[in-house]
Amino acid sequence: MSEPITVPAGVSVHTYVDAVRAHLTDLPADDIDDLIGGLEADLAERAAELPPGSDPAAAFGSPLAYAAELRAAAGFPPAAPPRPAPRPGMARRFEEWLRATGAEVAGRWTWLADLRPVWWVVRGAVLGGLIGVTVLAGTSRFVAVFVAGVGMLVSFWWGRTARRAIGSAGNRATVAANVVAALLLLPMTAAYLTPSVVYVDTGSAAASNPGAGASGTWVNGEPATNLYAYDADGNRIDRVRLYNQFGQSVSVGAEGTSWLRDLQPDQQPALDPKGEWLLNREVFPLRWGTRTGWEPSNGRWEPPVKISALPAPSASSSGASPGASPGASRGAPPGPGSSASTSPGPASSHSPQASPAVSPSPSP
Amino acid sequence: MDGTQLVKGVLDLAVLAVVAESDGYGYDVVRRLRAAGLDEVGDASVYGTLRRLYAAGALSSYVVPSDEGPHRKYYGINAQGQAMLRSQSVTWAAFAHTMEQLLVRSGVRS
User: Which residues pair with B74 in a beta bridge?
Assistant: First the structure.
């Protein structure tokens, strides 16, 4: 133990007094001040009488013993037992076991140390990938891979500098990161190899939909090519935009516009340079050119100018009318408009006066 | 016999006696006790005793700022401390006399 002689005695004494104080923290603050106040001056004076360069701890004894003597003489109870002998918690014991085992393994196979940088990169990929999968899930695969790449860089940088002067907190964080990465190594490897497991398309309620995974709008298993909106009174609503529960706008997808190719060229919307229809696919009914939008689509159903009004809400609350809500109308007796959806079945094809969901009469 | 144990029993009395001579700060009291021949006295024991006597109302205390370094905490005896000193010195004298008698009778001392 070579205490540098250049260190002024006062500095060491100050540290020593702080160490003593640390063993008194269970006492009331006033009592601690009574005990410690003036102690630094006294000890500094005593330290000045020591041979230069002496370690105060060597001259005064251990701070713990010193504090114990102070307490005893001052009439305070000895420090509570849990302080000097804290029961090591599970995490603590695991950490100690980990360190001991690590040291043993590293001592047996010294070449393992050369593989450290490899581990740093793997660790970064695992942890970065974890963040990419959990936090940023559903954004895009590119983002997830990018985050994993950043994780590799950060982990490598951390590994290179961790060796130098990181406090015990940083050290412990490193251990924790290593443990997590080691535990997740296999699951994450599996996830990387089978991207479909990782990158779930959260793109909406499509999951419960026959058209799952595809963009666009699906009604009763058919891609919607157009939507015609009516209000409760049966009046047309023009230029409607619809949103689902995720705030995603409802639009017709690729399937919903493919029928346009079958139209006469002069009936078709114009094309942009990329070959996409110049068409706002989120405003219903769809329109382009000189069309009003209320022309039939490929379903050939002609949307009437007005449909029958729905019964008053009170009627539906009676529960007696399954036809009171559009959804329930699917179960209604076969009528001209058996479906309120936008892709009417064949049965409704030629029913200009179709009045979907209008029959307030109870089902037979 | 360990002198440290003996000193512990009479530390209150010894510290009171030293402070009664003149006010002193912790290490000053330690030094004077040692100069008086009580070599076994421990620093921390003296500081703790000073604090306890102060808490018991036998000593008064004041802080003297120091130009170079931390403040010094001085202790001085008060009336209650003086009374304690007198009563304890009587007890000590009786005890010392008893011990002396015992040792003389057993023949180790003459």
Answer: B25, B62
**Which residues in chain B are closer than 8 Å to A34, comparing Cβ atoms?**
51, 54-55
Model pLDDT, residue B86? 95
Q: Pick from B26, B48, B71: which is nearest to A71 by CB?
A: B48
Task: Write out residues in chain A with pLDDT < 50, as ranges.
Answer: 1-9, 197-201, 203-213, 315-364
pTM: 0.40
Q: For residue B52, which residues of chain A lie inside 8 Å, CB to CB?
A: 73-75
Amino acid at A270: A
- Name the DSSP letter for residue A323: G
CATH number of B3-106, picked from 1.20.120.1730, 1.10.10.10, 2.60.40.10, 3.30.365.10: 1.10.10.10
Q: pLDDT (tens digit, 9 = 90+) per residue, A67-90?
A: 888 888 888 888 766 555 556 678
| B16, B43, B54, B75, best to mutate vs chain A, most A CBs in 10 Å | B43
Q: In this complex, do B54 and A34 lie within 8 Å of one another by their Cβ atoms? A: yes
Cβ(B71)–Cβ(B61) under 8 Å? Answer: no
Query: Which residues from A are below 8 Å from B51, CB to CB?
Result: 34-35, 70, 73-74
**What are the residues facing A223 on neighbouring strands?**
A218
pLDDT of residue A27: 85
Q: Given this model, what pLDDT does residue B35 score?
A: 93
Hey, which residues 68-97 in chain B have their CB within 8 Å of chain A? 69-73
Q: Which two tokens stand for residue A276?
A: 């996409």
Among chain A residues, the shortest Cα distance to B10 is held by: A73
The domain limits of chain B are: 3-106
H or E element that contains B75: strand B72-77
Phi-psi region of A239 (alpha: psi -120 to 50; beta: other; left: phi over 0): left
